Amino acid sequence: MRDLRGLHLLIVEDEWSMAGDLARFFSNMGAIILGPAATVEQASEHTDQAEAAILDVNLNGRRVFPIADKLMRRGIPFVFFSGDNDIAIPEHLRYASNLRKSSGSKAVFNALFPPQASEQADISVPSPPDDVFTLLPKLRLAARLLLGDVNASDRLVERTLEQAIRDVDHRQLGQSTENWLNDVMREVAKARGAKLMH
Predict the structure, then answer these.
(1) What is the pTM of this model?
(2) What CATH number did the domain enclosing 90 receive?
(3) Number of separate domains in the chain
(4) 115-120-125-128 Cα dihedral, nearest 10 degrees
(5) Residue 160, domain extent
(6) Could you tell me the CA-to-CA distances from 190 to 30, 82, 108, 159, 160 in Å, in that order?
(7) Given pLDDT bands bounded at 50, 70 and 90, which one contains residue 198?
(8) What does the pLDDT look like over 89-144, one tens digit per residue?
(9) Residue 147 belongs to a domain
(10) Residue 53 contacts by C-beta under 8 Å, 6 or more apart in sequence?
């Protein structure tokens, strides 16, 4: 399990008992808790210091999406943690995990900090090391940060995967799939970024 000592974790939650449970769970793992914040305004005070975040979608009738946008622009991992079924997540934020409040703190931890391959050694069926599907949310975020446009960023991910298939024989030995695809994406964005915007 990942060591959270010193990590600044923003908790945005308007139910104080739930906020307290999350804060205790993650502070016991060494995280420094920012908040818990019960409003968008309170959460805004902590977004620049946050290194990860848990976001309740509905804060007394207001949506947390402005906070998610700020975190996304900084490349900070976050998860939505909601008790509501009927709130639509904006398309550009759907790469993030969206958990029900009944999921519990451990599920939030696993969504926020997916286990690395080395941590999965005791699992009988480990995830394949080159599982591109599990990297898609990260690729979408990277593309969104590069281009700043939802539709163009999705096209960039598609072009990246197409280019990666063509270039698979030129991949450096020992390079992780994630690093390799990010390199391919930067090259595709440099070469074709402007065309993808239209």
Answers:
(1) 0.60
(2) 3.40.50.2300
(3) 2
(4) 60
(5) 132-196
(6) 40, 38, 36, 12, 12
(7) low
(8) 888 888 888 888 888 888 899 888 876 544 444 444 444 445 677 777 778 887 87
(9) yes
(10) 9, 10, 11, 12, 47, 67, 71, 76, 77, 78, 79
